[in-house]
């Protein structure tokens, strides 16, 4: 691993726009875009599964907003090498390099450090490492599995932090006993000092078509959410067991649904997803699922579309600000068009869906991030290119900058 300083400035970019009215009017008018050039090309597309079967997904990009208004970005290049770049002051300020290891999850800490989940392609091993604000390695912890290897043939990998521990959640490929040759998932907990902790599981959803993990401060609990086409049941599963919403699947990698993102509401999780209705599993397209960690509280779904899920894909979700009432930026792709809307905690539209020309996000990705000052930021990059787009949505007229940085 090495750190490279970089002074590449956002191409053709003015560092500040004049303040403007952003509390009303088109959503696109509240979004600023910065174009940056990565040190090397990002990874290409990879085969996987999306709604209804086989698909290709783009490079995995992990954006982690920092408390000072800058960002850490975890990404993997087209040679299979992982990187964590600092996006600050309108530029890529520097990059940490991890030769032969893919970036598979990222957490930013308030002290300026970060933790990154890394997968070594040569032997399909996984480790979690944390670097301090002064560039020192604080720990490097291997995360093993007696039943499987870390291999994302179907699902994905995510990393979350809360209550002084990390939750690493990722897809695995079975190598032992009844699991040999099958696809599942693993949840592992690691302390803030790098010690492996009890809890989690070595084999969970079969198959994990996609997975998400987050820490809800109000509940003081982690939630690992998988989309399973088979076991333990078909649909959206909470912590490997409780079915929050049934979605049809064929137990061969095909599921008639697709994940978006988790966002923390005041007292409940919100999950954006897409489900295509079948005779046994009715659905209406893009849904907003509300649920808690308590099995005694029945999950609810508000449908943001009523199309049957024929065209919608790649849903995303993030909270705007933290004050009441709850507001969420929600989006999805309809064909080749990307749409964004504002909804409240019940899924009612505060601003209806709007086609946002020139704005995009990843395939089956965990893209949108709420920043410390209540904005929403995300990135996109076309496979195999060096061009990175940073988008920032803001509602305060005095806090919109074209660079996306403060």
Q: What does it look like?
A:
This protein has one domain (2-393): Methylamine Dehydrogenase, Chain H (7 Propeller). With 406 residues, the protein is mainly β. The strands form eight sheets. It has a five-stranded antiparallel sheet with strand order 1-8-7-6-5, with no helix packed on it. It has strands spanning 2-9, 31-37, 46-50, 53-57, 62-65, 71-76, 82-88, 91-98, 101-108, 114-120, 125-131, 137-143, 148-150, 157-162, 165-174, 183-191, 196-201, 206-216, 221-231, 235-238, 242-246, 257-264, 269-275, 285-291, 300-303, 312-319, 328-334, 337-343, 349-355, 369-370, 376-380, 387-393. It has no helices and 32 strands. 0% of the residues lie in helices and 52% in strands.
Throw out a few tags for this protein:
single chain, 406 residues, mainly beta, Methylamine Dehydrogenase, Chain H, five-stranded antiparallel sheet, disordered C terminus
What is the overall pLDDT average?
Answer: 91
Measure the end-to-end span: 28 Å
Could you tell me the CATH topology label: Methylamine Dehydrogenase, Chain H
Spatially, the strands of the biggest sheet line up as 1-8-7-6-5
Shape: globular
In which range does the helix fraction lie?
under 10%
- Number of structural domains: 1
Alpha carbon gyration radius: 20 Å
Identify the CATH homologous superfamily: YVTN repeat-like/Quinoprotein amine dehydrogenase
CATH architecture: 7 Propeller
Q: Label the structural class.
A: mainly beta
User: How many E-type strands?
Assistant: 32
Q: Give the biggest sheet.
A: 5 strands, antiparallel
Q: What's the level 1 CATH class?
A: Mainly Beta
Total number of helices = 0
Q: Stretches where pLDDT falls below 50 for ≥5 residues?
A: 5-23, 398-406
Q: Which band does the percent of strand residues land in?
A: over 45%
């Amino acid at each position: 691993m090495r750190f490279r300083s970089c002074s590449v400035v956002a191409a053709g970019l003015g560092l500040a726009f004049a303040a403007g009215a952003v509390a009303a009017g088109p959503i696109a008018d509240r979004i600023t875009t910065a174009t940056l050039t990565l040190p090397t090309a990002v990874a290409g597309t990879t085969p996987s599964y999306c709604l209804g079967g086989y698909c290709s997904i783009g490079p995995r990009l992990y954006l982690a907003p920092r408390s000072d208004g800058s960002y850490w970005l975890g990404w993997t290049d087209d040679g299979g090498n992982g990187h964590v770049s600092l996006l600050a002051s309108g530029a890529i300020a520097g990059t940490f390099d991890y030769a032969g290891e893919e970036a598979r999850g990222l957490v930013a800490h308030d002290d300026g450090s970060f933790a990154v989940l890394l997968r070594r392609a040569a032997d399909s091993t996984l480790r979690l490492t944390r670097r301090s604000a002064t560039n020192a390695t604080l720990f490097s912890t291997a995360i093993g599995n007696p039943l499987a290897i870390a291999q994302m043939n179907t699902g994905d990998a995510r990393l979350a932090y809360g209550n002084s521990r990390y939750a690493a959640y990722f897809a695995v490929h079975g190598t032992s006993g009844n699991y040999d040759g099958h696809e599942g998932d693993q949840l592992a907990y690691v302390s803030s000092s790098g010690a492996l902790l009890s809890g989690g599981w070595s084999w969970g959803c079969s198959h994990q078509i996609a997975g998400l993990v987050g820490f809800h401060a109000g509940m003081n609990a982690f939630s690992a959410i998988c989309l399973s086409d088979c076991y333990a049941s078909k649909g959206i599963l909470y912590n490997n067991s409780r079915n929050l919403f049934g979605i049809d699947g064929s137990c061969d990698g095909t599921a008639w649904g697709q994940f978006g993102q988790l966002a923390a509401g005041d007292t409940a999780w919100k999950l954006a997803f897409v489900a295509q209705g079948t005779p046994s599993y009715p659905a209406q397209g893009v849904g907003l699922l509300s649920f808690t960690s308590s099995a005694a509280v029945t999950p609810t779904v508000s449908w943001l579309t009523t199309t049957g899920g024929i065209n919608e894909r790649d849903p995303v979700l993030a909270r705007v600000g933290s004050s009441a009432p709850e507001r969420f930026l929600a989006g999805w792709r309809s064909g080749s068009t990307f749409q964004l809307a504002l909804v409240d905690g019940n899924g009612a539209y505060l601003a209806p869906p709007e086609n946002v020309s020139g704005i995009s996000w990843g395939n089956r990705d965990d893209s949108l991030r709420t920043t410390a000052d209540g904005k929403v930021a995300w990135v996109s990059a076309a496979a195999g290119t060096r061009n990175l787009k940073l988008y920032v949505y803001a509602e305060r007229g005095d806090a919109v900058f074209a660079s996306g940085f403060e």
